[in-house]
Design brief:
Blueprint: E1 7-15, H1 22-30, E2 33-40, E3 47-54, E4 70-79, E5 82-90, H2 96-102, E6 107-113, E7 116-123, H3 126-137, E8 143-153, E9 159-165, H4 171-182, H5 194-201, H6 205-225
Antiparallel strand pairs: 1-7, 1-8, 2-3, 2-6, 3-5, 4-5, 6-7, 8-9
Length: 226
């Protein structure tokens, strides 16, 4: 029997200041980072119970984040610089975690920093990832893919992991790559030349090619060094 090739993408995304996430709200008000968030709920329950571990002590008065769906908020553990909060909320609010898991992909890691929410999950391919991101983009003003790891079964069954960290790119480099891809600059034959992409971006052709060249070098370095 032939072995089934395994492939998939591990994605880490950042949702900037989601107003419907109480953990991100506490993180924002206290300048704190939560290292772990866990969720539990029975199938016949309309309530989700969550626990969040923060990296410093937080005053209970600073946990009021204006979310009416929270039924209770309790400090359940505190030691040195670690504080654990437990709270219950209504299921089905359509928050970031539920948006992703509603698409059929469990969130495997969650943390917050300075009010931003970071989520990690697995999808089978980039088209599926694009649909998940688009769904989140309908609800939140800023959703950024921070890191992707692609897993492909190569010769001898070895998994070849390629890490692409978008945070290494400047906004102008990202935009140059994005617009070039959208306009078919990388197609063979090209659907658009450098001058046409530069005109669409509103920059000189030399500026576009410089941004694109640096961006491609950074991406290729991630692939080759990975």
């Amino acid at each position: 029997m032939a072995e089934t090739e395994a492939s998939g993408i591990r994605a880490e995304i950042r949702v900037s200041s989601p107003s419907d996430c109480p953990v991100a709200g506490i993180s924002d008000k206290n300048g704190a980072t939560s290292r772990s968030v866990s969720r539990t709920s029975s199938a016949d329950s309309s309530v989700v119970t969550e626990e969040a571990v923060f990296d410093n002590h937080i005053d209970m008065e600073d946990t009021k984040v204006g979310d009416d769906s929270i039924t209770e908020m309790d400090e359940v553990f505190s030691y040195d610089s670690e504080t654990v909060f437990r709270f219950s909320r209504e299921k089905g609010r359509g928050c970031a975690c539920e948006c992703i898991e509603g698409s059929g992909f469990p969130v495997v890691d969650t943390y917050t920093h300075d009010g931003d929410l970071f989520l990690t999950f697995h999808v089978p391919d980039k088209e599926t990832l694009k649909r998940v991101i688009e769904r989140l983009g309908e609800r939140y003003t800023s959703v950024e893919v921070r890191r992707l790891i692609r897993s492909e079964t190569g010769e001898g069954g070895r998994n070849d992991l390629v890490l692409v960290d978008r945070s290494e790119l400047t906004e102008k480099q990202k935009e140059a790559l994005r617009k070039a891809h959208e306009m078919g600059y990388f197609e063979h034959p090209k659907d658009a030349n450098a001058g046409e992409v530069a005109e669409e971006l509103g920059v000189a052709t030399s500026t576009f090619t410089e941004h694109l060249s640096v961006a491609q070098s950074k991406v290729l370095r991630c692939v080759v060094d990975g």
